[in-house]
Design goal:
Blueprint (H helix, E strand, L loop, with lengths): L3 E2 L4 E2 L4 E2 L4 E2 L4 E2 L4 E2 L4 E2 L4 E2 L4 E2 L4 E4 L19 E2 L4 E2 L4 E3 L3 E2 L4 E2 L4 E2 L3 E3 L4 E2 L4 E2 L3 E3 L4 E2 L4 E2 L4 E2 L4 E2 L4 E2 L19 E2 L4 E2 L4 E2 L4 E2 L4 E2 L4 E2 L7 E4 L4 E5 L10
Parallel strand pairs: 1-4, 2-5, 3-6, 4-7, 5-8, 6-9, 7-10, 8-11, 9-12, 10-13, 11-14, 12-15, 13-16, 14-17, 15-18, 16-19, 17-20, 18-21, 19-22, 20-23, 21-24, 23-26, 24-27, 25-28, 26-29, 27-30, 28-31, 30-32
Antiparallel strand pairs: 32-33
Length: 247
């Protein structure tokens, strides 16, 4: 038998399922979907209409908790949900408790953890990792190999360039004091971060602020300012023609 579709799973009309795929108990896949080869859709997962899921992808995976993990909790998670007209690439892992909006692209090798929401029309690039307890808004772009740490929020219309790194632990796993201060980063509406920038725990990138490539952000950045350097400092205003309100 090439595929296993649980008798209690629901598959919409005109949906195609590739070879060696598994669709679990009470999972729901909408109409007109294309499911690739060797795809695993875990029980109770909800997938909308006209969704494409490429080979070797896993949707609805339960998280693993390491003995020393500070951010992963043992909890009952809601089903993973993928909205209509999404494209999910090859070898993507989407955990239970993730909610993905409509017309989202999740590129090959990306990981979206539990308790994460992704807004409509957002692009999650190749190899991006979005850790647990994060919120990513609508019409954002997270490019290749971006790392978004747990407890972060990225508002609408944000641009995150390749290979940026974020952190949520100023104590770097030393002393119990750290458990009181875990906090990810916040990127306000229209914020932009250049390639290879590093954002330290709890820092806020102001609305329509721009962080230059290679910068290290050690303090909050003001709205509509370009910040650059190690550590990042205000350089000048974002040009008027680049402001979100003028697009």
């Amino acid at each position: 038998m090439e595929n296993f579709v649980h008798p209690e799973a629901k598959i919409g009309e005109r949906t195609e399922v590739g070879r060696f795929s598994v669709i679990g108990e009470k999972a729901e896949v909408g109409k007109g979907c294309v499911i690739g080869n060797n795809v695993t859709i875990h029980p109770h997962t909800r997938i909308g209409d006209y969704v494409r899921i490429d080979d070797n992808t896993v949707v609805g995976k339960q998280p693993m908790k390491a003995v020393a993990s500070a951010t992963t909790k043992i909890e009952k998670l809601p089903p993973a949900k993928i909205g209509d007209n999404c494209i999910i690439g090859t070898s993507v892992v989407i955990y239970a408790g993730a909610a993905i909006g409509e017309k989202v692209l999740v590129a090959d090798l990306a990981t979206i953890r539990e308790n994460v929401s992704i807004g409509d029309f957002t692009i999650i690039g190749r190899g991006v990792a979005v850790e647990n307890y994060c919120k990513v808004g609508s019409r954002c772009k997270l490019e290749t190999n971006v790392y978004i740490c747990a407890y972060s929020e990225i508002e609408d219309f944000c641009f995150i360039a390749p290979c940026i790194a974020t952190s949520n632990d100023n104590y770097m796993a030393r002393t119990k004091e750290r458990f009181k201060h875990f906090k990810g980063v916040t990127v306000k509406k229209g914020g932009r971060i250049g390639v290879h920038a590093t954002i330290l725990p709890g820092k806020v990138i102001g609305d329509d602020s721009l962080v230059a490539a290679g910068s290290v952000v050690t303090r909050d950045t003001p709205s509509k300012k370009i910040c650059m350097g190690l550590p990042a400092r205000v350089w000048k205003d974002v040009p008027e023609e680049q402001l979100l309100e003028n697009q």
